[in-house]
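User: My collaborator sent over this chain with a note saying "see what the structure looks like." That's all I know about it. Can you take a look?
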Amino acid sequence: MAAPNLDTVLSLIIEAHAIKGSTVVIGVTGGVAVGKSTFSSTIATLLSEDTGLDVAVIASDGFLHSNAALAEKGLADRKGFPESYDTAAITTFLDDVRSSKPVSVPVYDHHTYDIIDEVVEVPTVDVLIFEGVNALQFHDHFDVSLYLHADEPVMREWFIQRTSTLRDAARTDYSPFFDPWTDVPEDLFLEMVNGAWELVNLPNLLEHIEPTRPLAHAVIEWEADHAIRSITIQEPT
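Assistant: Without extra context I'll predict from the sequence alone. Here is the result:
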């Protein structure tokens, strides 16, 4: 049997745009390291190439409170949880986008793992994809909501692989966040990464991310090799 393709997902978005006739906002969510950014970029490219629609992708990371603000609020260990975001700013942003207004978005620097003093200007587009671990907390603001799923052990392994790659890159390209990890013995490093998953990413997944799955119009499930296992179209509850 052939693996499912993304045609059904693209059809949902194209139909929503045809009905609305103005900017369509797509929400994409799923656990840490499940592939939200790559998936969103792929959808944006396919839409642009197949339909000529203007598409932009914005990550919710830009709406995180700064590390200093999180520390002041006692939320340094809750980064990525709903309370670590400026929810009022996200709501205003999504309202403006849905009204086809040009907007600006704060920049989150993955090199420093913090908000920096820059913004990205987002012009009026046909489709805006808003992706993030807790994106569907704002499902009322989306025309189409998509949930990405992989089995928890698979996501954990992808998180370890991604973190290891970033740590290795910091050995030749200085990163203030990863530099302290570059000389940590491998077994201790893996223990630290697993600890981060257990203490932060897994609770966030179970308590806040997975409960939004019923709110999605489509659920895309991945295999361990990043192939699509299934695509389920559903009526959001």
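A starting point for your reply to your collaborator: The first strand starts at residue 24 and ends at 30.
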